[in-house]
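ingest -> fold -> write
write: protein_1
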Amino acid sequence: MKKRPTLSRSSAWSAVASLLGFCALPALAQTPTISALFPAGAKAGETVEVSVRGGNLAGAKRIVVIGPEGVTAELNLADVQVDESSKPLFQQKCQQCHEVRSPANRTLTPEQWAATVDRMINQRSAPINKEERDKIVVYLQSSARAGQVTAKIQVAPNAVPGKREIRLMTDKGASTAWPFEVSTLPEATAQEPNSEPAQPQKVTLPVLVNGTIAKDADRDYFAFDAKKGQHLTFNLKGFRLNEQSQTFFNPVLYLYDAGGKVLAKSHGYFDFDPVIDWTAPADGTYTLLVRDLLWNGSPASVYRLAMGELPYDTALSPPGGRPGASVSVTMMGALGGGQAVAVQLPTGADGITMVPTPAGEAPFLVRDLPDGGGPLGLVGPAVPLPALFRGKITQARQADVFRVLVKNGGTGLQLYARRLRSPLQARLRILDAKNNEKRVVVADGARDIVLNDAFPAPGEYLVEVSDADNKYGPNFVYCLEALDGQPDFSLEASPDNISIGPGGTRALLVRATRRHRVSGPITLTIPNLPPGVTATPAVIPPDDDKAIILLSAAPGAASDLRVAAVDGALTLEGGGGIVRRAQPMEIYDMNNQPRLMARSSFVVAVAAEPPPFTVTLDTSTLTLSPNQEADVKVTIQRREGFKGDVSLSVPAAPPGIEVRNLRNIPPQESEAILRIRANGGARFLSERPLKDLPPMWFAITGSGGGVTLSSAPLIVVGQEKTAKTP
């Protein structure tokens, strides 16, 4: 087996706490949740029946496919209802039972739910008697049965290979997303009996196998024929289909010869997903094993396993271009390298974008910047910034040199390599016009180089790129981006799914990352909202990096789902402006900690039923000075029939504002007193960078009964400030 470096995933988030603010959102799995979709893909031109598992999926009415054209879906409507008669008992008895308090966050069979309740009683001393146990089990088992739906997905013969997102529309609103892949390979499904080495499932390569390690100690064996010298790869996707699976699915691959000798194994190449790169030593029949490292199993342990003479580490050369362009690129990798393909770049793309190729999706840098070309060496003319440069390290001791002309001091530089699936361990050297060395930086592990102040003063500079380990190859591609002080910013919006019942309000958190002289206010808008849904005006001010948008559904709003977006607009000094679209981020729970996962779509939905409660405050405005406190009373008004807890939280607050005494409000209570404190960092209370900025405000959210709802805005102003409603 050829040894290759383990590639760690470049997270879509640097630190969840920095995105969610000082108080993370608690109800991370309250929306309808797709925990598994199987099979998670199909070959172009085929139709497959898929099973969808999850929580709060009862009442699913519609399946939505988001992505390139050519994939359509139809839901098989089933009249499977949840037995709600024991739900109040479950809410009363199980809110403190760790393994059963959030059934929507777990994918278990009905039998596994019964065993889980028994474990809580016998091992955790849950205060549940025999009669109560039986009623709770009935409720959880009926929820599990209602939480599985089926659908038919049709893939057109001309459908572009790559990933789509699947969501369901239910009575409770839109579900979380799950990927569905379109491939060009023959596809097969893992079939029992294949759990013993003496009974492997025979497959013909190349093939893409869809499987599930559905129960503890489950194993899938596959037998195949290979010729001596044949270069084969075995590439399993599990984590890359569902990042949340890392808590229960750690797939491992073992490759055996006909005598049962282990020839190769892998546990983790693309993060938790294994890859085996192997050359057959002789003609013969070989066996591949898929299992969980810890012998766990779950219906959500879904995988797609590509087997054959197939590339798995494809990088594209050149690796960057402008949005809307048609680019001729060459695929580079261990297998299938050298093939030229045409790639059409999306018009609205910005940043790392996955583009379809015959070898599957590959990362490509899309930036609306002038083309700086490739390295020209010491004698080439200086290229004025801003520009996007491209290169490739293909020889030993190669050092690419770029001569750049900087007009504005303080300009930053960013190198893209690992994010482009390049193995380049970049070494960056910067010299001034007199060849005086100014900076030498080496990439840290799997991270690329980002220098915010690469060029401290105007003038000409030399930028030298090489590999720190003196390695090279056709896939050692990279891009250099330098903006020369050109203003720019990016946005992230969480959650990626806003579902609201008629008469309800939910909060959306939008954060901005400003780059190079972006100091003005960013105005946020949400196009394509469902009828009856409105959004509060929102601005990310110069003295904050975030804003909350409140989305409200009118009392008579009809159930609907729309694929929307969050756009931010910035007006530049001297005229012109910048518009950027926010990256949607799904919030999910990992060991009771919030984490974020980038999604392709942002959806807004109106649920069928009004929300089970409302959140109101006893004031709309607080007047504070630094180091001063004030109390706010929160009232939970429950609808008849709802007897669950409501957990209070704050998605984000203005700088320097602390919110204390956040807690659960039990069914017998309806009020809580929060202490709001302005610390020394609340400088906005005394001065603002611009006149006529809207006031700073935040909202209190409550989570319970399967929904998260928000209060009206709570405006915070300093002394002698006049508040105006957002």
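write: protein_2
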Amino acid sequence: MNADPTRIPQFLRELSYLWEAQPDRRFVDVLAQLEAAGVSPASSDEDVLLAIANLRHIFPHTVDVDAHGRARGAYDIVTSTADIAVDRDHVIVRALSTTPRRPSVWAYSHLVTKTVSGPLTIADEEGNIHKLGVIARMSPRTQTTLAENALPELHRTSIGDTVYVVELSDDTRVSIGRKTTVYRQQRRALNTDTIAWESIPATQVGQPLVVAKPAGHGEEDLGVIQAIWRAHY
């Protein structure tokens, strides 16, 4: 038996971080997660700490950053005002709004604040501070970057929660998910068009983005792809 009392603060701190990452859950829900991870009354403290560490990789309470304040890897972050994705170099912001808002993609300097239940604030390359709402939850991605060189073949019935943001050569921006929305920035207004779609053939940067519509409605060539980002994993 380990009777060293100095282990207790670290143990409670790690458990606290796991719960803080999921503020909408009850403590008994966190205990149930540990039980599902194999923790039992027979588990040693070391086994419990390992289970907590493994769960914290799934439910981080903060974005892990390097010495420059940039994310190590890529994260999906839900705040009170937006769905956000961030990697070491870029931020994608999709505002939660009843009014259509063009997804924004921009390079950033560093993350200022980035902990669950606190504000997400990010400094861009010019030093401007962007306040992006209060963080409700976050999840790390297996991929480390948001940018993609190609789109796989996509089908509306199987795309799930995945969202791509595609920039076309004429600065039109397209959001592809369960619904596909085309954002064309005019001189004085944003033109928004939601397209009924069934599938999108595999394509890549430098090639056309072609949308196959429901039966009998043909295809639509939206233009040549300039950049692709995976906005939600």
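write: annotation protein_2
The chain has a mean pLDDT of 94.
The first helix runs from residue 7 to 20.
pipeline exit 0
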